[in-house]
Amino acid sequence: MAEQVRLKDVQFPLQVRVRTNLWARAFVFGVVMWVLAVPIILGVPSALFEWGGTKLLTLRVFVVLAFPAVCLYQVYTWMAWRRPRHLTVTEDEIRTHSWRVRWKDVSSLWLHIPFSMNPDQDSQVWFEIEDHAWTNELRRGNRWDSGYPLGTGGLLPRRNVIRTQFATDPPINWLVELFEELWMQARGDNPEDGEKPDDPAAHW
Question: Band of the pLDDT at 44, cuts 50, 70, 90?
């Protein structure tokens, strides 16, 4: 069970760092996949593919089709490693170097955990933003964590929802209750009342 950070325990501003060492390893893994894929696509060495039969031909077709996703993965992990979106959390807002949102401009928030054996690493917090604060600048700033395409990033976020980066320290799933308290405080509710934000993901 995640260890929850609460409002009464925090001294602001709170810094939430991205674990860039994990992203560096992911990038290296992508480089290895790219290096393995290129000779297969080019059919090198040619003698192997001439005598390899149907199985190698099938492998080559599969790699050709998957290669755009491999290239996307390379760009995505590079941006995550070299341009990490560390979070700064205050009582008024949450921000990175590329976007910022005031708590009072958040209409809802929730924790997203894909099927994973390591939720401390693979979780995100999603914020649904009020229409008046849903700007092109905010969308561009969150594009590398948008989930588009293929669950990665690079395309603009949709549905008024921005996301945090994966793999933070402390883990982002430890901070959900803190975010809820800050959000409720900003809209004038008492965080001690125990009310939780609605999860719009349940209605998508």
Answer: confident
Structure tokens at 105: 């401009």
Question: Does 159 share its domain with 90?
Answer: yes
Length of the chain: 204
Number of structural domains the chain divides into: 2
- CA 151, CA 138: separation in Å to the nearest integer? 19
Alpha-carbon gap, residue 163 to 124, rounded angstroms: 6
**pTM, whole model, 2 decimals?**
0.87
Tokens describing residue 146? 């948008």
Burial zone of 169 (CB within 10 Å; 0-12 exposed, 13-18 middle, 19+ buried): middle
Q: Do 41 and 63 form a contact (C-beta atoms < 8 A)? A: yes
Give domain status of residue 48, yes or no. yes
CA angle 140, 171, 131 (to 5 degrees): 35
DSSP H or E stretch at residue 182: helix 176-186
Same domain, 166 and 78: no
| Same domain, residue pair 55 and 78 | yes
On whether both 90 and 175 belong to a single domain, the answer is yes
3-class DSSP assignment, residue 18: strand
Evaluate whether 27 touches 167 at the Cβ level (below 8 Å). Answer: no
Is residue 117 situated within a structural domain?
yes
Domain of 195 in residue numbering reads as 7-18+86-203
Q: What is the pLDDT of residues 107-160, one digit of tens each?
A: 999 999 987 789 999 999 999 999 999 999 999 999 999 999 999 999 999 999
